[in-house]
Amino acid sequence: MLRHFTTRLLSRSIKFRPFSTNVAAASAADDAFVKAWRSTIPNLEPPKTPLSFMQPRPPAPSTLPSKLTVNLVLPYSSEFSNKEVDMVIIPATNGQMGILPGHVSTIAELKPGLLSVHEENGVKKYFVSGGFAFIHANSFADIIAVEAVPIDQLDSASAQKGLAEFTQKLSSASTDLERAEAQIGVDVYSAINSALSG
Amino acid sequence: MAMAALRREGRRFATPLMSANPANTLRSSLLPSEEQAILGVRSISTQVVRNRMRSVRNIQKITKAMKMVAASKLRAIQTRTENSRGLWQPFTALLGDLPSVDVKKTVVVTVSSDKGLCGGINSTSVKISRALHKLNSGPEKEAKYVVLGEKAKAQLVRDSKKHIELSMTELQKNPLNYTQVSVLADDILKNVEFDALRLVFNKFHSVVSFMPTTATVLSPEVVEREAESGGKLGDLDLYEIEGAETKGEVLQNLAEFQFSCVLFNAVLENACSEQGARMSAMDSSSRNAGEMLDRLTLAYNRTRQASITTELIEIISGASALTG
After folding, report:
1. B246 at the A interface (CB within 8 A)?
2. Chain B residues within 8 A of A144 when measuring between CB atoms
3. In which element (H, E) is residue B234 found?
4. Is there a contact between A71 and B90 if contact means CB atoms under 8 Å apart?
5. Which stretch of DSSP H or E encloses residue B175?
6. Where are the beta strands (DSSP E) in A63-195?
7. I need a surface site. Which of A50, A158, A162, B257 has the fewest CB within 10 A?
8. Candidates A33, A71, A93; nearest CB to B100
9. Tens digit of pLDDT for each residue in B58-100?
10. Which residues 153-182 of B are in CB contact (within 8 Å) with A?
């Protein structure tokens, strides 16, 4: 504790910063790294770490927040960033899960399925491929998926066709690899079909 | 070719007239052998200077073109990089970033470019990778390299050949996309044993500034160990694991997904930095070529005027010797 304090005092000027547990832990990790770096490699500047590029998250509030803050990120875009919504229903591996503000911290693995975002002016539905969802104690929800398309961009006819094609491939699969690929196709297409119909 | 021969013939007829007509401006385009035969050795230097000027001018054109190409590629890839920046933030928000974690097996993944002429970014990445390797080698710890990109491979092979586990090149043959990078990440995860993966890349800040960055991805066993021992990951245990599988399997999937996301962002940022560095390198190169061209032009004019002056003096003194 004292060592953390002295390193913080030495490495940066004494600023009165609102104390958030995230920020304190982050700077401690960075300081230990920077110290170890400088002792072994004196000539080079230490590299930056991702924490220095991120906005720190607010800590868990004492009262229940009224809204859930959702980030939906994909490799090619961030669909929502810090969007305030009422409820989110995510397709976890063991079924649809509803997330309200004040939900317990959870790490959930997602399977291909329907994601619906409930806000004041309606419900937005997306079809997501697999991914992960993190729900934090401060009513922040991060959903990381590989693909998320609004379901009005999906065509049910080609989804039916795809399901038929992959079911046929599954029955005629010979190796484990082919069977696994066909099974994945069947799962995804049946999820698309149920999302479009339900 | 025929025109040059004709010109040469024309000049051979004109040479007896030339000594009487000093205002002949065709002199400077004679071939050096012709000039040497008529006027002496001093005019050859104009030809040499002219050749240098031509080659410097060509180089300037090439570097200007390369700068334009790099600028257009940068524009294209910059939007994709900025869109992918949201991808690694949830993982860092959940798991934090522990660059000082103490592990037995570290694997340093260096991201670099395949093509050269991009300034010093590849050397910086290699220096940082070597430093991380040194930081993480000790009596019980060992560190290995996985190299992406030709330039870092060339530099690391020289002295750390036995530490390189895997090397991949030609990443940018097809435009970068997540599928390709996830296959790459899968390859690395399957073939390399690790407790912690440290990615080294250049993060793109602006066209003239690139920050060398290192991102750490821990293996699921180390995550469990750190969560149990408290500290930064201490509240990981507070998180319920939803999923049909066990906690260990979910953590394993999480680590793999985190690695592919962070690697995707790292590769995009490095490509962006490469184009930016190439733009500024080619820009300074064209400027340098322009300055060199100015100096050569001055030298050329001086030599040309000196040879004309000596020619005039000889003619006039010859004429005055005849008359006076």
Report:
1. no
2. 87, 90-91, 257, 261
3. none
4. yes
5. none
6. 68-73, 78-85, 87-92, 95-99, 106-110, 113-119, 122-128, 131-135, 140-145, 148-150
7. A158
8. A33
9. 999 999 999 999 999 999 999 999 888 888 888 888 887 777 7
10. 178
B18: enclosing H helix or E strand: helix B2-18
Contacts of A82 in chain B (CB under 8 A): none
* Matching residue, tokens 């993190």: A134
Q: Hey, what domains does chain B have and what are their CATH numbers?
A: 2-76+288-315 (no CATH), 85-279 (3.40.1380.10)
DSSP B231: G
pLDDT tens figures, A91-103:
888 888 888 888 8
ipTM of this predicted complex? 0.80
What pLDDT, on the 0 to 100 scale, is given for residue B17?
Answer: 42
CB B182 within 8 A of CB B260: yes
CB A87 within 8 A of CB A69: no
Asked if B213's CB is within 8 angstroms of A109's CB, the reply is: no
pLDDT tens digits, A150-181: 888 888 888 888 888 888 888 888 888 888 88
For A136, which DSSP code? -
| Residue bearing tokens 């800590």 | A59
Phi and psi, residue B76, nearest 5°:
-65, -40
For residue A48, what is the DSSP state? B
CB B275 within 8 A of CB B77: yes
Q: What share of chain A is helix, strand, coil (3-state, %, to 5)?
A: 40, 30, 30
CB atoms closer than 10 angstroms to residue B271: 26
Per-residue pLDDT of B165-179, as tens digits, reads: 889 988 888 888 899
Q: How many A-B residue pairs are in contact by the CB < 8 A criterion? A: 145
Region of A30 (left: φ > 0; alpha: ψ -120 to 50; beta: rest) is alpha
Give the range with max mean pLDDT: A16-20, A34-38, B276-280: B276-280
CA distance B167 to B109: 9
- Answer for the pair B250, B94: CB distance below 8 angstroms, yes or no: no
pLDDT at A20: 40
How do A87-92 and A95-99 pair as beta strands?
antiparallel
- pLDDT at B28 > cutoff 50: no
